[in-house]
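Let's practice the habit of predicting before peeking. Look at the sequence and jot down your guess about where helices and strands might fall. Then scroll down.
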Amino acid sequence: MQFLQLITISIFFLSGCTFARKEKDIDKLTYREFPRRTEEEAAVIEWGHSAVISALDVSVAHFGPQTSQAALLEVETRPILAEPLTGIDKETREAVTKFDNAEEVHGNIAVVTNQGKLDGWTMAKIAMKSGAAALIVVNFDTKHPDDIYRLQVPGEESSDGVDIPVVMISYNSANILTTATVTPEMEQEDIINHGMPERVRLYAGGDRPFFEDVAPKRPTLYLIHNLLTPEECNMLIAKAQKKMQTSSSDSILEMTHNTNKMHKVQTATLWQGFWQLHANKAIEERIEQVTGFPAVHYTDFVVNKYEKGSYWQSHYDVFPNAIAMATITIFLNVGDEPSVVYPNAKEPIKIHPKQGLAIVHHNTKEQRQDLDMDTLHATLNNNGINTMYIAQKYILMEPISYARRIFVPIFTMIGLGGFMVQVHDVLVEKFGAEQGSSYFNKLCIALPVLILLLIGQIFVNQLQGSNSSKDNKQSTDKAKKKGANKKKD
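Done guessing? Here is the structure:
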């Protein structure tokens, strides 16, 4: 597989001109624009116990209790599949007045789907008449299985008519909910409550991370709101500002690439590896928990600075010796521009900046290691008044070597970071990307050992020199004493 990956990368670089000719004029495209979700709608459905907690993102409807009314929104009870599940009577094809299993629904959370094309407000009214404590509407969209949105109040209706919480969950989330208590060895008759938990808790999400589906494929792309807190964003900016420089060439070690397509963009690589402070470690753990990507595959953050007039032309996240399996792009400060665009998507996508918002796109095709050509992306011209900082973290196919994670940050801390980059680039140029990187990893281990041996040798030499001086002094003192005794005689 590694050989095939290298062939793919080679073909990509050799045919770069061909790809460039096929690029679209990104300024003339009609885009689907994101983000669309907001903190005001973000809520959570949770179940489990202290050891294992499962949680699903949900979107609170425009009617009923809102996230700002936390006490009214919060419900903890049993989820029950409504009958009929769509709210439509099978014989009359009209909306039912109450659910057929209203007695079971009473005091619990009713679960329905939008397959019957009933609006959320009407389904909420049916749930209320059935005595439901809350309503979950499943967005039965198999083409966009992670998509959710805020249910609207139809026409002239008043939002005051609904007093129970109403939320939407995605198709995939519904599958998780209805298999929560199912194990592989279970028989159908052993499954209780359609596989749903005995109790779930609905509550406002607050400032916790939540997802927004953008494209399930071509490219696979989604957003994570609040992945970083404002304090964490400001911390990364402060660290990067001291190291900003204009990159004139690509560096595999620093994970800078396509620098020839950057215009007035400055970059800084924040070497951390194993030597992370508590705040940095918390970020890594959160990213691992939220995305599911193992932390050992993460590169360190690369922060790009976009002043007015800065931009990064259309490019792929491909390095001379690797395709990044996925890329996490995070907006670090507040501003209106620049946006990140994906012109090759089936429907071109534009994502506007929002502090702490992360864009996650998969660079490779599903279950394969070859490049997904629909991941072509660009950072548009910063026409705003604010200087913007955008961070990237790349998820590599192979784990990052322990040698690099341990020793490169140390060399950087003692002022040898630039020297190590030059050494790495020389090795790669002489021996090729794969072998050169392997030699560099070995050098990362050997160099500290040599330095320790050198320090040890210097210490031994000083110790021997000190002992020799003492011996000479003692010999001189003896000679003087002997001479003095002869004079007395």
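How did you do? Residues 433-488 form the longest helix (56 residues).
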